[in-house]
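Anyone opening a protein record will find just a pair of labelled lines. With that in mind, the following record should read easily:
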Amino acid sequence: MTETLTMDQKPVSAAAPEWLKKFFYSDAYLAILGILIVVAWYTKIPIIAFLPGSIMVMTALIILDDFSPMLPIILYAPCIFQTKDPAPYWWQLTGAIPLVAGLVFHFVYYRPKRAKMRMVIPQLLIAAAMLLGGLGSISEEHYLGTLTYNIMLGFLPLIFYVVTAIYSKPSPYIGFGKYFAKVSVWYGLLLGAEVILMYWMKAPSLDKLGAGFAIDLGWGIDNNVATILLIASPLSFYLATVDKHKVFYTVTGILNFAFTAATFSRGGIAFGALGALISFLFVLKINQGKARWKIFVPCAIALAALAVVYFIYMDDINAHIMKLINIDDKGISGRDDLFREAVDVFKANPVFGAGLGFDGVYYNQPEGMYFYWFHSTLFQIIGCTGAVGLAAYAVYYFVRYFIVLRHIEANTFAQFAFIGLLCFEAYSMIDTGTFIPYPIMVYVMLLTLCVEQTNENYSRSRRPEVGRA
């Protein structure tokens, strides 16, 4: 009798060699992508990363019934551009044709799975609140000027969340949480490499660091880089807990927190230091015996080196810290004026707010830009979306942290993800991270999905077998 081929017995997957399939879950795959992107960014020739990266990912999408190897492409892709205007390089997007072909093949050939997606409704509420923002008060010109951005903020994280949820499948080579953590570790190293290269190219004087010279990588500025690193860095210590290469991942964790400081983003430095301390305490608490020493020693060396540098250059460092805190004698960089303005706007437009296209007094908008930043998640919500936005975000945060805290006592990945999210939320109270759709909010949404899926794995492992002899 001829055996019927099931969806789990893919001829394409079966024909591929094991070493090749395993490669797409390895540090080598992520490192190669990262190097290609850094070279493309430095040379301003995007096709250097587009073409070989696209061919690699196309191969993964064809031979694997798992969407996970797309995660680094989703998150790293913006880092290719060292310019705010990628228009001159659009022709180089032809290098991504193999990727598109791989995606079409994957979506047609491989069957999506059923998945619990608790963030769908909360994100749809966010989308609705953003689209309704300013209703009855904002001008047509300013509403249309931010419409594309509002759509991206509402729907882009949702699209990546749903597609990844239904097409990511269990891998025999690595768990989803561990793989996501590896993607995050190399994300941080990629960002750090671009920051270092930016210093090398611009060669700013030391007295201007963070106070006259700001990191601008084209695709993002110092605050954007710091925000991503705050989320990614604790996951290095998660890998130092669950992976045998504990020294390597401890060192990458130290490096990623150091890169956060190298951005000279004041909030990034403050909350990065907090995240580093909590991560260090967690990882020492969880690990025992020789494993603890493999983590403690690199951290102790890093702290000793930091202390030595501080005591040698104490006066200069203290003076620079004071300059960062009191830059231009504006206290908290004029954010207090923006916060008060947001409250006034909320009082004048309590239901729908004034919209993201609000034309205010204290934020210096670039020419032709309609986005108004109140520089705080809370004040951005009340100023731009009013009570409707407050209700939508209340649901959103409740569901997100229900997911994160659901099995946090047993889910080690959730514990370190929680550290990163707390640092992100705290920093976003004085910056705009929550309102940057791509890559920041896409990253946050995918991290939430990863916690959600690791929770489901934990729930299944506790479920008693029913109906079996």
Summary: The CA atoms of residues 30 and 186 lie 6 Å apart.
